[in-house]
Amino acid sequence: METAYTAARERAAWLDRSAARGRIVVSGGDRRSYLHGLLTNDIAALVPGSGCYALYLTPQGRMVADLWIYEIGDVVLVAVHGDVKDAVLARFDQFIFSEDVQLGDVTSTFTEIAVVGPRAADHLARLLPAASADALRALPEHGNLRAAFGDAAAIVTRITDVGEPGFGIYMAADRREALVGALRADQVPELDADTAETLRVETGVPLFHRDMDEETIPLEAGIEGRAISFTKGCYVGQEVIIRVLHRGHGRVARRLVSLAIEGTVVPERSAAIEHGGRPVGEVTSAVFSPRDRAPVALGYVQRDVAEPDTIVRINSASAGGKGSDAISARVTHLIS
Q: Between the CA of residue 7 and those of 14, 120, 164, 203, what are the distances in Å?
């Protein structure tokens, strides 16, 4: 029997992100320039049908949130993790002065379903006849297009943050059951939370409030290449980021890495990582990988331990565990 994991890796599977994510629409003629001054990526350069991954930082360069930005044509759609949506919306509102900008919280009125896997475009094209499989496959990462599911308008975005490339579908919340029913009728299985977590950790996609938080500098998590424009003008937190890059040559005290773990024990979150008999970091996410037939993890380690193939020890029982509880792991690569 095909598992959800196999379906996602080899064909297609769907994931309901409606509860986990918040959705904000930003309208008005100044919407892009306004967001451009707050966020780390080049929002002003977006044209209808394009988008980007971006960060909202504190003046000290720490993360408030990571966000997915889509210029739809008449509004900008912002997707953000649900537990920080209210804080982001409040901060956005705080910085509107004379700009032509309006904010709307559409979290409860829009559903968000991800369909991922190598055959995702084929399945979606059958459900959204105005969007051909070729047009869907041609979308670049964060690209978007308008479509229709029956008589309901839909927005389709190109995504990679689930761990398997695919698409995000945004549409009216009252059409969720119809969309899910159509996916099931087309033999697309649902991804449960544990399987979705496995895909994410295997692929090395950091998650906010798990692998990153309000104390994280983006360079520690390795996301600056995707989330920060180094040619745009000022944004909140830019001074700190530039200082680290120019004066510190991009060096930070710790880095997020992927770890391959010996044996079958999956370490818990916050398990201590040691090297040379000293603590050097901690695990942030860990799963058993069907692909590798062994546990894999994400975790922060000190800069001098972040080289690929470095062997470390993980205390599996608790962050302070010692002795026989320690298991061997190998740094496979920096997250980037």
A: 9, 10, 11, 16
83 and 16 within one domain: yes
The whole model's pTM is what? Answer: 0.94
* Amino acid at position 139, single letter: L
Tens digits of per-residue pLDDT, 189-213? 999 999 999 999 999 999 999 999 9
- Using DSSP's 3-state secondary structure scheme, residue 67 falls into strand
Q: pLDDT tens digits for 212-247?
A: 999 999 999 999 999 999 999 899 999 999 999 887
**CA nearest to 295, candidates 318, 321, 268:** 268
Task: Please report, for the domain that includes residue 93, its CATH number.
Answer: 3.30.1360.120
Residue 79 located in a structural domain: yes
Asked whether residue 142 falls in the same domain as residue 274, the answer is no
d(CA 215, CA 128): 42
The span from the CA of 106 to the CA of 148, in Å, is 18
pLDDT per residue as tens digits for the range 258-317: 999 999 999 999 999 999 999 999 999 999 999 999 999 999 999 999 999 999 999 965
Question: What is the DSSP annotation of 190-259?
Answer: BPPHHHHHHHHHHHT---BTTTB-TT--HHHHT-HHHH--SSS---TTHHHHHHHHHTSTT--SEEEEEE
Cα(227)–Cα(167) distance, rounded to whole angstroms?
Answer: 19
| Burial class for 319, CB neighbours closer than 10 Å (0-12, 13-18, 19+) | middle
CB burial of residue 288 (10 Å; 0-12, 13-18, 19+)? middle
On whether both 112 and 186 belong to a single domain, the answer is: yes
Q: Helices in 11-163 by DSSP H: which ranges?
A: 31-38, 85-94, 120-127, 133-138
CA-based nearest residue to 204, from 84, 113, 305, 284: 284
Q: Which two tokens stand for residue 50?
A: 């394009």
Q: With contact defined as beta carbons under 8 Å apart, do 266 and 71 qualify?
A: no
